[in-house]
Design brief:
Helices cover 78% and strands 0% of the residues. By secondary structure, it is mainly alpha-helical. It is globular.
């Protein structure tokens, strides 16, 4: 059983890398909050349809009121994370985004684990692994590098903070659902994935109404050559291929992460975050041509050691 859960975690990581690549490309080609909302709205619709079909064919059962509350909170967290992630990817490196998100998705869950998941204890060695993973954050930040020019310091802090808060809510409540609902036979992971996308779609519909109204007012002030108001331009023509790829990756990540969250907290949280950091680093270096430094190499070694420790 554990082998299958580890396999689910690896598949979730592969989906994360695809999602990161495609969403960063979307952010590069169609920057801004409005475009982020438009892109994530379509992703949510596609994943909702797929999730509904899979849920109907594999199970068809629902969950309790408490289970629904957990799912909605997790879906809200995922929506915030997706919205802010595209914006963050233009301001800082992928590795730094994931390292900062790790504060909420690794340290906080391990602190609350003994209270939220009765009997789910964290050993001293596993805490050391957690601390090493946390230390790697500072090793991945190279002050000697030329910083990105987009955005002010306040904008960077605010957007990355929203991204991290969203990831934290999603990570904690996915685990909470599997422990308190799935393991007691009160709801399935397929239903969790389906309803979480319902919640995400609701959030992005609200965001879209607000952002479209704001964007319409902005472009109305811009006149064309014949003096007519400029119309709002949706980003889909430029990035539709990336959106489709990201939607598949998003659903796969949500599904396999929910399966993998059945691992003990002391293994699931550090291992999942360590894999995300490793994958983000490789994307930054291989695909987006970020500079490799000695500090970052040491950071990778520290993460690798931490992963070994948390699995002892």
């Amino acid at each position: 059983m554990d082998i299958l859960l580890y396999g689910a975690l690896i598949l979730a990581q592969l989906a994360t890398n695809v999602k990161q690549f495609t969403m960063k490309r979307c952010g590069q080609k169609t920057p801004g909050a409005f475009n982020s909302v438009c892109i994530n709205l379509v992703r949510a619709v596609i994943c909702l349809v797929v999730g509904a079909l899979i849920w109907l064919f594999t199970d068809g059962n629902t969950t309790t009121l408490f289970g629904h509350i957990i799912i909605v909170i997790a879906g809200l967290g995922t929506a915030l994370n997706l919205f802010a992630w595209i914006l963050s990817s233009r301001l800082v490196s992928l590795t730094l985004i994931e390292c900062i998100s790790m504060i909420g998705t690794l340290v906080l869950p391990l602190v609350i684990a003994p209270y939220a998941y009765a009997g789910d204890k964290v050993s001293l060695v596993q805490w050391i692994g957690c601390i090493l993973t946390f230390v790697s954050v500072f090793l991945f930040i190279n002050k000697g590098e030329k910083t990105k020019k987009e955005g002010t310091l306040f904008q960077k802090i605010a957007v990355v903070a929203v991204c991290a808060i969203g990831a934290t809510l999603a990570a904690i409540f996915k685990k909470f659902y599997t422990f308190h609902i799935t393991e007691k036979g009160l709801g399935t992971i397929e239903y969790f994935t389906f309803i979480s996308f319902v919640a995400m779609l609701a959030v992005f519909l609200i965001f879209f109404a607000f952002c479209y109204s704001k964007e319409a007012r902005r472009v109305a002030e811009i006149k064309t050559e014949d003096g007519k108001p400029t119309k709002v331009e949706l980003p889909y023509k430029k990035v539709w291929v990336y959106i489709l790829m990201a939607a598949v990756a998003l659903y796969a990540n949500e599904l396999f992460t929910s399966y993998a969250s059945q691992l003990p907290s002391a293994i699931f949280y550090p291992l999942s975050r360590g894999l995300v950091i490793l994958g983000s680093f490789l994307l930054d270096v291989i695909v987006f041509k970020d500079k490799v430094t000695l500090k970052k190499i040491v950071g990778l070694v520290v993460v690798a050691v931490a992963i070994v420790l948390v699995n002892l």
